[in-house]
Amino acid sequence: MSRSNKLHSVAAIFDNPDKVIFAAEKVRDEGYKKFDVNTPYPIHGMDEAMGLGSSKIGFVTLFFGLFGGAFILLFMWWSLALSYPLFIGGKPFFSLPAFFPITFETAVLFACVSTFIALITVFFKLPFNNHPLHDTDYMKQVSVDKYGIYILLEDEKFDKDKIIELFNSLGASSTELIYQPKEEKYSMFQPKYLIFLVFLAVGTSASTYLMLNKLMYINPFNWMEFQEKLNPQESSLFFADRRSMRTPVNGTVARGFIPYPYKGIANPKEVLSNPTLPTTSFLKLGKKKYLTFCSPCHGNFGEGDSRLNGQFPNGPTFHSDKVRNFKDGMIYHIITNGQNSMSAYDRQISREERWAIVDYIRVLQRAKNAKNSDLEEIKKEPSTND
Amino acid sequence: MTNNDTGYIKRTLPKNVGKLGIILFLVGAITGSVGFFLDPARASYSYLNSYLFILSIAVGSLLLVAIEYAANATWSTPFRRMSEFLASSLPLLILLVIPLLLNIQNLFLWSHSEEVAKDHMLQAKSVYLNTPFFSVRVFVILLIWSLFYYLIVKNSRQQDETGDLLMTKKNNKLSIIFIPVFAITVTLQSIDWIMSLESRWFSTMFGVYLFAGITCSALAALTFISVMLKEKGYFHPKITKDHFYSLGTLMFVFICFWGYIAFSQYMLIWYGNLPEETFWFMQRWKGGWKIVSLFIIFGHFLVPFSVLLSHPSKTNFKKLKFISIWILAMHFIDLYWLIMPGMNGNGLNFSFSWMDISFLVATIGIIIYMFNRMFEKYNLIPVKDPKLQRGLDFHL
């Protein structure tokens, strides 16, 4: 780097950390304000020796941290609650606990990056990115195994000879005059550098575009990908409504399936009769399915005391006279068709399982309204679990 | 032993400090035992709250000592004795736990055999949650902690006289064993004493949550006492603000850690939205408890966080004193918030009782008295510790 005649600073090299701490204290006591110390590693106690207060960089970190957190919170509110509301797990659109981790991460990201940028901006005095200490013997030594101090020209008490004398009296092993670099122009704004940046930007964008939109779609074998048929949801010009998916002809019945005749009727005049036999294994199936599908609202014993109490409308009890007088087919009908706020369960519970549930509900009703004579019968039977 | 080459001069605290401890203890103990006659259920809960408070400070301080040895930290060596003093109530806890075990029926639903017979979940848990196993577990854990306290502190004191390097090595090994043992035992204790109050509730993060609170309170107690002693001139003159800055930073870190754990526990339960987990938080969001919950969010995290955030505030004695007392108070309120809503099963509205305070007063009395006693007997800094000189010379 070629240098001008303009002085930047006077620098001194010291051989060990004790000397440099001592020297920093003396330089501080002499009343110099604009000086700095360079060491190969952080030295404990240097802040105090140089008379530094606490760093102001924390305010930059705080401001940008808060800014980043607020920004991303606002962004999530806008994108997830306002612009394109999305149901996620049944939560409210703007649900703060879910946004906290992202807010935290973004606040940290903004804080770190802004702190780094602020540091190099202040240190290099951007856009000047060519620090006068670069490429000096002084810098080469202090970044390996020596300890150095330099006092800047801007200091009020700056006097070249006096400073050199001071450094020598403090035991400096060598002193050095550092001059400003010659180029007045900011090297950041040199055409060569700017053209390089433009090429870099264009090259990165173009290669990303090619990679993601072209290269990744080059298909070595496309024998299976494109076939002479229509996929679900595709449009077709063959039919007038341009749909490729057709609905079956009215009255179509799947093989081996008899449709439920009273589907969609709220209070059917007649219902199916129960075709099953309440064997032990069948009742066990009924119990399992009852506990899975029915008990969340109707309660484990059909008393309408659900464990979701208060979160949904309570299911009614099965032990009222009305329900006890229902025919088996009526209960089957309600499971199949739904009633009031209860939805139809025919998609989730098979026909056989529905009848098993009906039988199990009968068991619950019998147990709840047991007669004295039932006890006699139980005594006769051998005791079994379940 | 009064004078030595580190420049430390042994002094004793004013006589009324020990008396103050005894008076506080007596006032608290007498009013508390009256409480046990008037309302045993409430008194057992209040007693449990204060018991866990003193347990937090004692075992947390022992953990700080162990961390210092295990990490070979030098800056904290001058502070180590104070943590040892604060941990000195650990062996007392074995006695103090007896009233709780006698009142176990007032505290835990699972200790009632007729309740267990009714509830399938309690039956399934009864392998672990039953009175004999519980009592054995509590005693064994307290004995383990006291044993480690006894060994570590004995070596540390012996070094004051002999200056034997071997003691540091021994304690290093002991500490490395103690830290994982502590992790397991503190998790068990948190489940036993707090989580099983509401026997149907569970959270896998609960042990860590209590650990965060314990460490916060132990650090706050250490900071408060060291600042007080420094201000009154009992502490070594070479202890500078750089030492206190490090203490403040550590406190700040654990406040952040507490916030992180508390939020994570809440968020997982909030996201899962399962009725068997959420009821615990719902209960603490009803009536007066809502105010306590909000106060904990602000008081246990936001206030200490913003007070300790800036660089100068970590060296400001006034602020450090204020915030360490604040954190201790918040830890007590946090324990209150964990324990009290479980009283009588569930759904109790927020209510305050004079017994809560009387047991706390007794607890503080014990801590002051024990600290004073240790202070009279032993040196405030480990005078012949090999790391001491580096600790005193510590600079940022």
A few lines on this structure:
Chain A is of the alpha+beta class and 386 residues long. Helix content of chain A is 45%, strand content 8%. The radius of gyration of chain A is 42 Å and the shape is elongated.
Termini gap of chain B:
31 Å
> What percent of residues of chain B adopt helix (DSSP H or I)?
over 70%
Indicate the radius of gyration of chain A in whole angstroms.
Answer: 42 Å
Shape designation of chain A: elongated
- Name the average pLDDT of chain B: 90
Number of domains of chain A: 3
The best one-word shape of chain B is globular
Characterize the largest beta sheet of chain A: strand count, sense, and whether it forms a barrel.
4 strands, antiparallel
Q: Which two chains touch over the largest interface?
A: A-B, 17 and 14 residues
Question: What characterizes the major β-sheet of chain B?
Answer: none
Which runs of chain B of at least 5 residues are low in confidence (pLDDT < 50)?
none
The amount of helix of chain A comes to: 40-55%
Helix- and strand-based class of chain B? mainly alpha
Order of helices and strands of chain B: HHHHHHHHHHHHHHHHH
Q: Roughly what fraction of the amino acids of chain B lie in strands? A: under 5%
What is the number of helical segments of chain B per DSSP (H or I, 4+ residues)?
17
**β-strand amount of chain A:** 5-15%
Which structural class best describes the helix and strand composition of chain A? alpha+beta
Query: Radius of gyration of chain B over alpha carbons?
Result: 21 Å
How many DSSP H or I helices of chain A?
Answer: 12
- Strands of chain B, total number: 0
